[in-house]
Amino acid sequence: MDRPAPQGGPAASGPVLELRGLDKRFTGTHALKAVSLAFARGEIHAIVGENGAGKSTLIKLLTGVHLKSAGEILWEGRHVEMAGPHDALALGINAVHQEVVLCPHLSVAANLFLGDEHTKFGMLEGRRMVREAQAVLTGLGFSVPADVVLSTLTIGQQQLVATARAALRGTRFLIFDEPTAYLTRQEAAQLFALIRRLKGEGVTIVYISHRLEEVFELADRASVLRDGQLISTHAIGDIDEQQLIRDMSNRSIEQIYHKESVPRGDVLLATEALSGKGFSEVSMAVHRGEIVGLYGLIGAGRSEFVQSVFGRHRATAGRVLWQGKPVAIHRETQAIARGIALVPESRRDQGLCLNLGVGLNLNLTVYDRLTRGLTINRSAEAAQADRQIRDLRIVTPGRATLAASLSGGNQQKIVVGKWLNHGAELFIFDEPTVGVDVGTKLEIYRLFARLLQGGAGIILISSYLPEVYELADTLHVFRRGRLAASYGFKEASMETILTQAIGV
């Protein structure tokens, strides 16, 4: 892997990149406000903040996507202008984004060597590229095949390919934007090993993540942005999660995990020795007013279990009881008719029509009730949407506003409101806070409380242990498709729960 060697001289002992009063204004928005910050050679520097804090704007300024409005950027002590992405790449500044920006129809090898293909007599040397690409991936510690089409890989594997491509391009300053949002535990471990290796080779890493436990695991320093301003910069050993959250949002960690005491009601759903593809003999119950948490490693069987409950896949043994009576749920429409709703992990891809208005999204499940013949009852349509906007406190200029323009928390409320309009009583939330900031998490947790107060029950699937630990009234631990353990609220320590999930 070829990379420009660190240069000597006085600049080598100073910051590799320095920002002095960096400022960015858009029409009507002051996105970044006179940020002054220095990045040392060979450090891992975390940038944290809520959505809208200015992190994305900072990335785009450093990679030449946006032009600065004011301020200076110094590279190894020299003033530089980022007139475009090529200027950043020429210096060795690169970024790996949460959304993979590669060519899905090409092979992994072709993506790695895109723009620098191996040719002989004007013909691509495909086999040589595959061999060299596989050597690169293996050398980086990534378990990814080089000869397959990129789109056949998981999103997490595609991100590892994007990381390998950045490492191949002579990177000296590498920005990671939410890199583990879609990675498995094993893939994240591979990425962390590479990050530490690059740091050891003198590469400066900027690490942007909402997962604060990763910040404390990896970073040397952490800087906090809020409302476009730099609030603080700390050595990681001089700060704890409480202080970081306060700097980010002016809230304490206790305020983030918003949990209200709601009386537990009747049993909504129960499963008795339910078995199916990927899980077996799972018995549990969900009451009204209760959050039932499902925790486990990737592939432990949690998602397979709830998909069977929702009718996406048929169970092979056992039974499901709805409000005390055995029911057959072989299709999603049967689950929906009972009052069961699945709020998917990818709300943007699977839960919303982003190019439609808020009102249309809220009423998608009930237009059969709002129509007579070919005519929609416009007053009833507006009333249904406005009720959910009011009751769920969806922040929107109006029901015609496109769903794509709303924050992640408000988009999640629209998905829930759609099912409330239909009459859902049991909500299955699959990774509801992946990739969202602490403020949006607080909105989602408050939404949980309102659902419980209204008599609903919640199944919460989360790979983030503190989330299910702080919120679940009953916590079930999955391991290898079976229930390994079950606990009441904070009945066991997080260490015990993680041990049960791993099986050591």
CATH top level of the largest domain? Answer: Alpha Beta
How far do the termini sit from each other?
A: 37 Å
- Rounded mean pLDDT is 86
Task: Identify the strand order in the major beta sheet.
Answer: 6-9-10-3-11-12
Query: How many strand units?
Result: 24
Radius of gyration: 25 Å
> Which structural class do you get from the secondary structure elements?
alpha/beta
CATH architecture of the largest domain: 3-Layer(aba) Sandwich
Helix fraction?
25-40%
Q: Report the portion of residues in β strands.
A: 25-35%
Question: How many helices does DSSP assign?
Answer: 20
Which residues form runs of ≥5 with pLDDT under 50? Answer: 1-12
Tell me the domain tally: 4
CATH superfamily of the largest domain, by name, is: P-loop containing nucleotide triphosphate hydrolases
What would you say this structure looks like, in words?
With 504 residues, the protein is of the alpha/beta class. It has four domains: 15-92 and 172-250, P-loop containing nucleotide triphosphate hydrolases (Rossmann fold, 3-Layer(aba) Sandwich), CATH 3.40.50; 97-168, no CATH class; 251-339 and 425-504, P-loop containing nucleotide triphosphate hydrolases (Rossmann fold), CATH 3.40.50.300; 347-424, no CATH class. Helix content is 36%, strand content 26%. The protein is built from 20 helices and 24 strands. The strands form six sheets. The chain has a six-stranded mixed β-sheet, with helices on both faces. Helix 16 (378-391) packs across helix 17 (408-422) and helix 17 packs parallel to helix 18 (438-453). The protein is globular and about 70 Å long. Residues 1-12 have low confidence and may be disordered.
